[in-house]
Amino acid sequence: MATTEDNREPTETADPAPVCPRCGRTYAGQRVGARCGEDQAVLVPAPIAARYGDDPMVGSLVGGKYAVVGVLGKGGFGAVYEAIQEPVGRPVALKVITPAKEGAQDVRGRFFREARVVAQLNDPAIVTLYDYGEEANGALYMVFEKVRGTTLSRVMKQGAMAPDRVVRLLAQALRALAQAHRLGLVHRDLKPANLMVTPDALGGEALKVLDFGIAKVLEEAEGHGDTVETREGVVMGTPKYMAPEQARNKPLDGRTDLYALGVVAYALLTGREPFEGDSAVDVLLAHCTVPPPPFDANSPVPPRLQAAVFKALEKRPEDRFANAEAMITAVRDAMPAALGGHTTSVETLPVEAGDESVSLGTIETIDAPALTTGREFAGEAIAGPPPARGRWIVAAGVVLLAVGALLFLRPEGAGVTAGAADADQHVAAAGRAPDATSPPDATPIADAGPDAAPVVDATPAVDAAPAVDAAPVVDAAPEPPRPKPTARPAPPRPTPPAERPAPPVETPKVPAEKPPTLTVPEF
């Protein structure tokens, strides 16, 4: 899109005496954008009225809410105007396309298709499209955010730029192209005049890509000085930045934009375009047949960055980068320090020691270290020590085992069989010291043979049932001798109860090892 770069500077809208471009009346004290009392035209600054008073768009109201108060650029197909959006008072850039009568319907259809796609772009490096429509006279318009800055075409007049600065700007432009190409939108006219540098909130530089969706629409619109007519038709673009397939009027895709951006990168790094000629045709032939000249021997551009630029300038699209993401990677790897390890201008929060949060990511890679602890929560690894509940489980198990052992060794309780009570009686008798009432020649029960008769203790044992109450065991297998317990001091014996009921008679306990023949007693 041809523009007058001198008019890209913001139009002064604080003129104390705006003028009506229709009747020429001056309104002292009125604001720019107010209405003339005679013809209801939009008041504009006096210099705009003097220079562009004959333009019917100046002083008009487009789309019922965009008051045109200035001119930012003109071309054969239309112009770019400065307007004020009513009633919010927001300054906008209004691009108006006036197609030729022949083929106007085709241009209209393509315009609305492209505008719908452009409206989906939301990258910070792409100028936002606010609105679009058609006027009653057939003029098509797009309403974009108004960007204050300097185009790279002006910056290039100062000579070659530092490589790290170029890398930062390239990364932003490639990020914008990556989103547009994913939506199937090709810019087709990337050049320094369509790349604007603006200050960001942190005092750095931000890049804005202008005119997305314009060049393709203009293929069938009225041509101007930047187009090249061929036998096949009108080829849109600027010859110094056109890819070979574009010069040959072949099908285009995202790699066409990568070639144009490669030409821009070469020009920013060296201060000159790689292909020149006496005419537009000579330049186009050079794009198709002549390899780009090498960088100077003492150039500060790193070799890997030079290689990335030359790959973008390959003649055949299949020899270039496959997509914008691949070119971003190559540019980043060539000078990683220029981007701080990232491919966007958004800073990534560092991971502090002991911090369980991860950095906020970008559309590209994140350089934050991975958190590997083996625990998962909501799909993310969480840093920190392992849980301590395992130690409580072990402690609880030990307590349960101790309680079970006490219950098992308890001398008396419900559910104890006669055999078990007899065994408890043997252990209790063997473990207590002889007293005065015991017969002097009494033999310990533990030493009795298998056929020995039960012995009744002279002193009733609290913990043992009388042997006479035990059910006799008929034909029971002989019990193996029990080991003698180690003598230990007898604990103090409690006073026995005067009377206690005998335990219920139960079935004898069967030994662990069953004999070949077992006779069950009859009751």
What does it look like?
By secondary structure, the protein is α+β, with helices and mostly antiparallel strands. Among the domains are: 141 residues, Phosphorylase Kinase, domain 1, CATH 3.30.200.20; 190 residues, Transferase(Phosphotransferase) domain 1 (Transferase(Phosphotransferase), domain 1), CATH 1.10.510. It has 12 helices and 13 strands. Strand 3 and strand 4 form a beta hairpin. The longest helix has 20 residues. The protein is globular, with a radius of gyration of 49 Å. It starts with 45 loop residues before the first helix and ends in a 92-residue tail after the last helix.
| Gyration radius over CA | 49 Å
**Morphology:** globular
The fourth-level CATH homologous superfamily of the domain at 150-339 is Transferase(Phosphotransferase) domain 1
The tally of helices reads 12
Approximate strand percentage: 5-15%
Low-confidence stretches: 1-14, 222-235, 341-389, 413-477
The sequence of SSEs as H and E is HEEEEHEEEHHEEEEHHHHHHEEHH
Strand order of the largest sheet: 1-2-3-4-6-5
Could you name the CATH topology of the domain at 150-339? Transferase(Phosphotransferase), domain 1
Give the C-level CATH assignment of the domain at 150-339.
Mainly Alpha
Helical fraction equals 25-40%
Can you name the CATH architecture of the domain at 150-339?
Orthogonal Bundle
Query: What is the first-to-last residue Cα distance?
Result: 116 Å
User: What does the main sheet amount to?
Assistant: 6 strands, antiparallel
Q: Report the strand count.
A: 13
